[in-house]
Amino acid sequence: MKKIFFLLLMNYFVFSTCAQQQAPISPCHTNSAYRQFDFWIGEWEAFNPQGKKAGDSKIELILDSCVILENWHSASYNYSGKSFNTFNTETGKWQQTWVDNAGGITYYSNGEFKDGKMIVTTPNDKQPDGTYKMLRMTFSKLSDDKVRQFGESSTDGGAVWKTDFDLEYRRKK
Predict the structure, then answer these.
(1) Alpha carbon distances (Å) from 1 to 7, 8, 150, 171
(2) How far is the C-alpha of 89 from the C-alpha of 26, rounded, in Å?
(3) Which residues, given as ranges, of the chain have pLDDT below 70?
(4) Are the C-beta atoms of 148 and 139 separated by less than 8 Å?
């Protein structure tokens, strides 16, 4: 009986000590690079240059502030998607993975925060028709309540860029 009591008492102290130990501080809290894209966090309505509403987007911090999650819903048709955005400490680059309800996946692996803008670019990927294509998105903080998301594509390795979309995100009040 004494042995059982002793074992129970030892287990109590071991578990009690483990419970009191705090988890290490996330590198996402101590590395300022993770906070470069925080200007995009919030709830937004997105509009095209003609002023027509393109959709709604909720941008939030998840996973101990290591990932910025976008939740997009189109205004005009049944299209939605999510992007996962994070700073990669191994490459020193931002990356975004976009997935949508049409089965699409786009991976922007070469991102940087430069001159107050977040710029993410895909590799020059081979398309199903044999051509090559790069995508680039530039996020610019226009004010505390407005962000511009400008999307472009290039089929010549980045020499010439074509506008694919131009959205102004307006913070919901």
Answers:
(1) 10, 11, 72, 66
(2) 13
(3) 1-24
(4) yes
Spatial distance between the Cα atoms of 40 and 69, rounded to a whole number of angstroms:
10
Q: Residue 81 CB: number of other CB atoms within 10 A?
A: 19
51 vs 45: CA distance, rounded Å? 11
b/e map 141-162, b = 16+ CB within 10 Å: beeeeebebbebebeeeeeebe
Per residue in 66-77, pLDDT (tens digit) is 999 999 999 988
pTM, full prediction: 0.84
The values of phi and psi at residue 90, to 5°, are -70, -40
Task: Judge contact between 88 and 98, C-beta under 8 A.
Answer: no
What gap in Å lies between CA 133 and CA 124, rounded to an integer? Answer: 5
Residue 9 phi/psi, 5-degree rounding, is: -65, -40
Cα 50–Cα 52–Cα 55 angle in degrees, nearest 5: 135
